[in-house]
Structure formats: structure tokens, C-alpha cells
Amino acid sequence: MGDHVTEIVIFTLLFLLVSGMGFVAARWRAPKDMEHLDEWGLGGRSFGGWITWFLVGGDLYTAYTFVAVPALIFGAGAAGFFAVPYTIVIYPLFFLILIRLWSVSHRHGFVTPADFVRTRFDSPTLALLIAITGIVATMPYIALQLIGIEAVLKTMGVTGDSVLARHAPIIIAFAILAAYTYQSGLRAPALIAFVKDTLIYIVILVAVIYLPYKLGGWGSIFDAAEAKFTASPNPNDGITLNANNQLQYITLALGSALALFLYPHSITGVLASKNRNVIKRNMSALPAYSFLLGLLALLGYAAIASGVKPLPGATEGTVDSNTVVPLLFDMQFPAWFAGVAFAAIGIGALVPAAIMSIAAANLFTRNIYKEYLRKDATNAQEARVSKITSLVVKVGAVACIVFLDPQFSIDLQLIGGIIILQTAPAVALGLFTRWLHRGGLIAGWAVGMAMSMWMLWQIPNPANGKAHFGGSAFPLSDFGFDTKRTIYVGFVTVIVNLLVAVIVTFILRATKTPDGVDGTTQDDYFADEGDPRVDQDVAAAVDHKSST
Amino acid sequence: MADPETPKAVPAARSDRSPWNWLLLIPIVLPVLTPLFNHDSPRLWGFPAFYWLQFLFILVGVTTTSIVYQMTKRR
């Protein structure tokens, strides 16, 4: 590993710098009282335009995205570019949804999407389902951030033979991360995001100018990719889409867009902003990251053009395609710049991992601990439980990577994106209408979940010989259609979920089943900074008023 | 809302309604129309149409959300 010394030194220095920042962050915009979930878990709900841009950008565009999307392009071509339409559609789609969510959460002090559902639909059961779905979907996502770091470490040759030696650097990195998240809460990733994103922007801009210069221009890079795909036996790769994967491309982009802002960690980032205008402004500023992601995705083609061969995977005979971008930097750039690039990816994993663990911890605290275990928990107790839970969540994520096949986490994350979509009718539609009955929403969720599992079970992956959970592209021929087209599983199941919710709502209305009391008022959805907050004891009065 | 401290905080019914919101549909629909951009030519700086058109759609998205924000923000 001698020739990687420069890279390792730069990586370590930058890593230590942000770790220091993580601990100092507790004193940044210091709160009067850190012993409150609003402070630890939402940074005081005070972030302005710039901080929100860095925080949410660092939160949505994760390290795993940055290694996995180019890897997908490297392997399959145009189909992997879905990440761009996905991140275009998402902002106009959520523009009007997120401001309503922010307003009602501001007024009622909601910290999680499940908090909102509980008050809106007067159903602790539905809220519990939303919370569990959120936690289950987030856990593997945290584990995947470790895969991002691991891809970088592998490329630098920091690997050992025993299980412990191989994972020691990751365990140390996560222990540091856990410590400063425990201390500083959401302020830590918010501060670190500045460094991470600045590094990422510099690295990508240099790469997209310098690499074509070295490899003979973008034209020849695309030609090299096309030559590779023409030679491959796979009928569905290529630098443009074919007749069979266009529907998958569209539905995957739409479905993923709808899912992303339903993830608890995205909502945490949004609720931490200080007013509605900050959110609206960011809906037009965040696409800067989409541009970056698009350029980064194309590095997958640059890797083809420069003849990158991915490093071997965890099991015999497989390759770890996540290593293509790190390898490309290792191969084409001077060691010090590759070191900066690796640090950008490594630190890039820390920001979302911190926010995700905070979001999962908040869900546990608000919707399980306070709801079922200790109804009279004080604000300070809530904050303490959340801090401890965030540690547990991180230990779980590290354990997943150390003791299980990383493929397991990738499968779980695939499932996660689809199950989080099943919360859309309650969380997203629920912000606009209370027409759907809580029983209907629960039934829709259950059917959507079951159907998602069944469909994913059916999908094989011939590339790595897996019989089940091989991807999210469901062949329509399995439904009996005479076609080779495929469709994104989540897109189908969320529609079925909604249909079931509507039908069951009709039945429950016909049978006059009580559907509880709406704890929110029409005006709550338009509240802004400076509007009065509803405290615990005032909430009862509002509940009473809205029910009359 | 009966809040004794800030009676003036509740003006006439507020709303997010605005005809400008319709603009948001453009960047949602455009990226879904694959037949529109699923081509290799014309190339731009070596980029096949499939890629540079989708990069262009990012700008369309930014433009529309910016217009909607400017036209609907509260003063």
C-alpha cells in the first residue's frame, strides 16, 4: 500500500478536520437549552437558506449515491441516468407539499412525519406503522453510507485479512461520528455539510473538465461506452434507452422522487429550516446538486473509456462495481487530488449518516417511546432518549456491514425505497385532505407492503445469480401481459395502496365507523415564522375547537 | 384559533392558491416524455441528445420553481 500514502494522509487530515468541527458544532448558534428535541434533533428549527441548502443537499445526495450511480452507468448505461430525471421531478413535485408540512409542524411542534399523521388522523396505530416503516427504511440506508466509505478505503488499499482488521477504519470513523452526533445533534451534520459539499463541487468540476481533456473529449468517451455496450450480451444496456426499459426509467424516476422526501431524514432537514420561503427558495437552489450528480454519473462512462477494472467483491468471483469512481480518480489524477476526492466521498457519507440516525432516533422517541412506553416524558427525557437511540442505530448499521454480506444491505435499501412509498397516502395526501379514513389508510398500507414484498421476491438478477430481490424492475409479463417491458415495483404498489385505501374508506363511511378527530385546523397549513406555536396545553383547546 | 397573546396573527383565510403553481407541472411532465429525448443525435460538445437535453431540463426545473417562488412569496 506504499503508493497510496499521500492519499491516506490527505484523507485522514480532512477527516480529522471535520470531526473537530462536529464537536465544535454544539456551540455553533448555541441554543439556550440543548435538552430539547427541537434543539438536538432539529437544530432549533432555525436554519436559513444557505445552511438548509448545504444540509438538505448533503442529506439527499449521499456518498452512496455518488458511488452507486456512476457504478450503475458503468454497468448498464443510460438506464442508470434515471437519477437525473428523478432529481428534476422531485422539487416541483414537493414544492407545495413541503411548505404545508413545514407549517403544520411549526404550529404543532411536530418532529416526525408520524407525529403529523397521529394528530391529523387521530390514530396512534397508523402513526406507529408510519414510524416503523420509516425506521426500517432508514436503517439499511445508513449501512449503505458505510459501503461508500469502504469503496474508498478499498481503493486506497486500507484492507486487512481478518474481519476486524478489514473493518477497523470504518468502526473508528463511525465511533467518532456517533460521539459528535450525540453531543451536537443536527448542528454537526449542518456544519460539516459545508466542507463536504465544497469538496465535492471542486472535485467534480475539476474531473469533468480534466478527464475529457485526457481521454479525448466527451464525444470519444461516449463512443467508448457505446462500443462496450454493443459488445456486451446484455440486451438492455446502451447509451440510450430501448423499447423495453423506458417505462422502468420513467416509473423509477417518478417513484424514487415521491419516495425521497417521505424518508424521515429528508423531512428532518426540511423541518429544521426557519420559514416557508427558505423551503421554496431551496426548491430552485437544490437542483444545483442534480447537475452535479448528472456530471458525476457520467464519470461511469469516463471509467469505461479509461479502462477501469472494478476491484473484486466480498465473495469469490464477484466484482465490487462501487469501486469504479474511486479507481478512476486513483488512475487519472495525482495522488494528492485523489486524496481530496476520497475525503469528499468519505465525509459525504458522514453527513447523511448523522441525519439519518437522528431522524430514526426521533421516530423512536416520539412515536414509540413517548406513545407507548412513557406517556409523560419531559422534553429533556425525550432529548436524552433520542441521543441514546442515535447511538444504538449507528451500532446496528456498523454491525450490518461487519457481520452480514453487504449485498444484504443493498437489498434492504432497495426494499426501503419501496416501503417508504407506502406512507405517501397518509403523509403526502394527508396534508391536503382528510377524506381517506384512518382504517382505509392502514388497509392500503398493509396491502401495499405485502404486494411490494411479493413483487420484489419474484425478481431474479441473472448478473449475480440471485433468484430473489434482484432489482426493482418487474417484468409486466409476470402479470400476464404479452410484453418484455418492465415497471418499477414501488410505482405499482403505491397505486394499489391508494386504491385499497379509497375502497375501504367507502366501506367504513357506509358502515359509519368513527374516524376520529382532526387535531389540525385549515389555517395550520399556512402558518409561518413568527406565528404562534401550539403548546402542549393549548393543543387540547384547538382539538376541541376544530371538532365543533 | 383562540390564542390570547397574538390576536392579530390570524388574518383572513390564508391559502397557497395561485395560477402560477401550474408552471410546476412542466418540469414534472417533461422528464417523463422519453420519446422526446431518447436519441443519440444531435450531439452537443460530444454529449448525445439524451444527456444534454436532460441537463437542460434541470434548468427548466430551476426556472419554473424560481418563477413560482417569486410570484407567490409572502411579503
UniProtKB/TrEMBL annotation, chain A:
Bilayer topology annotation: Multi-pass membrane protein
Top-level taxon of the source organism: Bacteria
Keywords: Membrane, Transmembrane, Transmembrane helix, Transport
Pfam families for this protein: SSF (PF00474)
Cross-referenced InterPro entries: Na/Glc_symporter_sf (IPR038377), Na/solute_symporter (IPR001734), Sodium:Solute_Symporter (IPR050277)
Membrane-spanning ranges: 6-26, 47-67, 73-99, 126-144, 164-182, 194-213, 249-272, 284-304, 335-364, 385-404, 410-432, 439-457, 487-508
Subcellular location field: Membrane
Keyword Cell membrane: no
Protein family according to the UniProt entry: Belongs to the sodium:solute symporter (SSF) (TC 2.A.21) family.
Name by which UniProt lists this protein: Sodium:solute symporter
Species the sequence originates in: Paractinoplanes pyxinae
TrEMBL record, chain B:
Lineage: Bacteria, Bacillati, Actinomycetota, Actinomycetes, Micromonosporales
InterPro entries the UniProt entry points to: DUF3311
Protein's organism: Paractinoplanes pyxinae
Keywords carried by this UniProt record: Membrane, Transmembrane, Transmembrane helix
Transmembrane segments: 20-37, 49-69
Protein name: DUF3311 domain-containing protein
